[in-house]
């Protein structure tokens, strides 16, 4: 007879903080946690003090190894709801049906820096999503770029060793601006396309909320009727794609190293829940696995949206910050091979290597094979895996049978050979000679790098040139710079000439690919103003000045959850001319322009202590230089002029009242930056 089974007791809750008294780990009450047990008031500490030894021992073992890559990150809980239109390509219920909401956990990260490194470094960003579906866990372990540096996973340790701090002195931290990284890029022409993305504004996002995400590899999807398609995943942010400018990113590293983390939590707290649409590029599943001449197994290639549009299939909304960073964000474990029926992997050699690496790395990082039992990782689908024991086993398995086939338990648990509710590998044919191959279709390393360059607007191209010049300018070895210039010469003659000029090096010759067509979808400058939810507007106010703009702006942008922050010369309260008061949230000492998407000068600041403080000029000039809307209300325009802000420049708004500036400011914020001003400043 089969017994009532609860083989993996995933529902047992571990109550970490029960009751209101302090106890030992064994639950005995503690009389005093501030003084060790000693022989006499000034005598030696006694070995007998169990509480002291247990407290320190546990503390000594609090850290786990940080992730070997993507160590610095932050996460949030949320929900995913499909639109239902993906049913034509996949039978995965969480994508195919509209009637269920799937719980998700998303972790964003940088790649190279250590756990304590700054958020706003120039780097790729991880965008990993765990979908707790009722058919099992699906992990979409992607990045904010749609391509990767290498085509074969065997080279992953090489690129990471080259990018991480150089091993002799362990510098520089969390950045690619050093010899070993660019030595790798110069000697691997396949990396050129990804390097173009990394040196673009995409490498320095304004917020995790304003990044796109990509599954990078091509996946194979299977519909309920058995038809298959080749598919690429995209995340499209509701707020559009918005980046910092380089000087701003550098200042932020010092002013607020937790900038992206704070931004995510603050937006959620303000009710501006971050959202992304999940999109699919759906391509026919052909024998050669190519589309319009693009090898879909090559992870250094995109499929331009103009030739295969992204179809929106669902909405992700992040609604809740984790309650405990370690338990959730640090212990979450993603794996590319966590797929559900309806979604399968392909022969992309980079993807195949990843299938090995993720489980392997968790064994070290999370200390054994039972990490799926940690609350953040626990599947919401019923688990009956017949795995037993191991380090950190939480489940109390019952019964005697942990093998198949068996007679004692009626041969339970059952397998599903017909695939009704099981993951069954699609029988794709494989042939060819065993060997270490270099596929011919993987050898074009420059046409898509050129495509990317040609798709940028002039101001974005100027940022790209500046980034290459900065990074190579930090390299010490001449041959490293020359190696990269040789690759850039095969991307675009203007690009290489401008970078070489900045480095003071000769321009190498190179053959540029012919007939490359731009993909306008790759530019991140919006055609028209987008949503401004959760944007941060700083308002400079002075003692005895007009404070009414603070409340007026809050009211005007309440529906968009725009955060209006009061900045003044001192902390505490500030009193206005009519006796009204506001709480000062930032002083000129504690703030920096990088905290704001726009800065407003209230009437009455000119001639005040705020105007006399030199940091006011720094704040306003930085906001101006970084292309942010700068607003002067009433006599505030005089302050702008006195600190040297060009009040005739684009998106410097002088208004008599808040009412006059609400819409122009919303429009300017919705464009992310004053692109016209940035172009003007770039000359
Ligand atoms: Fe990876 C972590 C994304 C290639 C090996 N990877 C990791 C994370 C993301 C990615 C977002 C962090 C997950 C988290 O937040 O916990 N990785 C990618 C993408 C790749 C990629 C988009 C290429 C398309 N990765 C890649 C290769 C290998 C790895 C080729 C190894 C062969 N990645 C790992 C890892 C990590 C990891 C060592 C470190 C921590 C972890 O897995 O859980 O296994």
UniProtKB/TrEMBL annotation:
Compositional bias ranges of the Basic and acidic residues kind: 1-21
SUPFAM superfamilies per the UniProt record, alphabetical: Class I glutamine amidotransferase-like, Heme-dependent catalase-like
Necessary cofactors: heme
The Catalase core domain, residue ranges: 23-412
Catalytic activity: 2 H2O2 = O2 + 2 H2O
Key word Metal-binding present: yes
Residue span of region Disordered: 1-43
An example molecular function term from Gene Ontology annotations: catalase activity
Domain of life: Bacteria
Pfam families according to UniProt: Catalase (PF00199), Catalase-rel (PF06628), Catalase_C (PF18011)
Enzyme Commission number(s) of this protein: 1.11.1.6
Similarity annotation: Belongs to the catalase family. HPII subfamily.
Summary of the function given for this chain in its UniProt record: Decomposes hydrogen peroxide into water and oxygen; serves to protect cells from the toxic effects of hydrogen peroxide.
Record protein name field: Catalase
Native species: Promicromonospora vindobonensis
């Amino acid at each position: 007879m089969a017994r009532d089974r609860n083989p993996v007791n995933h529902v047992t809750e571990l109550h970490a903080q029960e009751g209101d008294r302090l106890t030992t780990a064994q639950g005995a009450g503690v009389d005093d946690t501030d003084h060790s047990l000693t022989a006499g008031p000034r005598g030696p500490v006694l070995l007998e003090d169990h509480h002291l030894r247990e407290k320190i021992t546990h503390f000594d073992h609090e850290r786990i190894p940080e992730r070997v890559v993507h160590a610095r990150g932050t996460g949030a809980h949320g929900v995913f709801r499909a639109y239902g239109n993906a049913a034509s390509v996949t039978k995965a219920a969480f994508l195919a049906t509209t009637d269920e909401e799937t719980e998700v956990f998303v972790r964003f990260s940088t790649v190279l820096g250590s756990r304590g490194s700054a958020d706003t470094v120039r780097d790729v960003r991880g965008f990993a999503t765990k979908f707790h579906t009722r058919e099992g866990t699906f992990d979409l372990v992607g990045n904010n770029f749609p391509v990767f540096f290498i085509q074969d996973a065997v080279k992953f340790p090489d690129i990471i060793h080259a990018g991480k701090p150089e091993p002799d002195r362990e510098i520089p931290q969390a950045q690619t601006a050093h010899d070993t990284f660019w030595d790798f890029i110069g000697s691997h022409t396949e990396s050129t396309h990804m390097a173009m993305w990394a040196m673009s504004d995409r490498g320095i996002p304004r917020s995790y909320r304003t990044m796109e995400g990509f599954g990078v590899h091509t996946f194979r999807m299977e519909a309920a009727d058995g038809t298959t398609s080749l598919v690429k995943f995209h995340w499209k942010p509701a707020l559009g794609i918005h980046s910092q400018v380089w000087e701003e990113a550098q200042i932020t590293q010092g002013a607020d190293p937790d900038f992206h983390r704070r931004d995510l939590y603050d937006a959620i707290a303000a009710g501006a829940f971050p959202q992304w649409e999940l999109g699919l590029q759906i391509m026919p599943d052909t024998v050669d696995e190519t589309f319009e001449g693009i090898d879909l197994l090559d992870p250094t290639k995109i499929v331009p949206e103009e030739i295969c549009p992204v179809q929106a299939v669902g909405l992700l909304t992040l609604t809740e910050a984790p309650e405990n960073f370690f338990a959730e964000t640090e212990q979450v474990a993603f794996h590319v091979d966590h797929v559900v029926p309806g979604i399968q992997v392909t022969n992309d050699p980079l993807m195949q290597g990843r299938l090995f690496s993720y489980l392997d790395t968790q064994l070290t990082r999370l200390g054994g094979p039972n990490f799926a039992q940690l609350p953040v990782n626990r599947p919401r689908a019923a688990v009956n895996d017949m795995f037993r024991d191991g380090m950190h086993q939480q489940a109390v398995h019952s019964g005697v049978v942990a093998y198949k086939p068996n007679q004692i338990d009626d041969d339970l648990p059952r397998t599903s050979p017909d695939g009704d509710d099981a993951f069954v590998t699609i029988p794709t044919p494989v042939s060819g000679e065993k060997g270490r191959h270099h596929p011919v279709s993987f050898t074009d390393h420059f046409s898509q790098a050129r495509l990317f360059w040609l798709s940028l607007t002039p101001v974005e191209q100027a940022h790209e040139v500046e980034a290459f010049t900065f990074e190579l300018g930090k390299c010490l070895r001449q041959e490293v710079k020359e190696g990269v210039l040789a690759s850039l010469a095969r991307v675009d003659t203007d690009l290489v000439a401008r970078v070489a000029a900045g480095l003071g090096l000769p321009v190498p010759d190179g053959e540029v690919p012919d007939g490359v067509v731009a993909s306008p979808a790759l530019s991140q400058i919006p055609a028209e103003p987008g949503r401004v939810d959760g944007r941060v507007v700083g308002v400079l106010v002075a003692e005895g000045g007009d404070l009414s703009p603070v409340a007026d702006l809050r009211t005007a942008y309440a529906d968009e959850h725009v955060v209006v922050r009061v900045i003044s010369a001192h902390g505490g309260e500030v009193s206005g001319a009519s006796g009204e008061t506001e709480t000062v949230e930032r002083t000129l000492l504690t703030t920096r322009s990088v905290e704001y998407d726009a800065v407003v000068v209230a009437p009455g600041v000119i001639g005040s202590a705020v105007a006399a403080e030199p940091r006011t000029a720094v704040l306003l000039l930085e906001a101006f230089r970084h292309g942010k809307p700068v607003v002067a209300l009433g006599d505030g325009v005089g302050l702008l002029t006195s600190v040297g802000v060009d009040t005739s420049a684009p998106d410097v708004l002088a208004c008599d009242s808040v009412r006059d500036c609400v819409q122009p400011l919303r429009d300017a914020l919705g464009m992310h930056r004053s692109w016209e001003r940035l172009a003007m400043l770039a000359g």
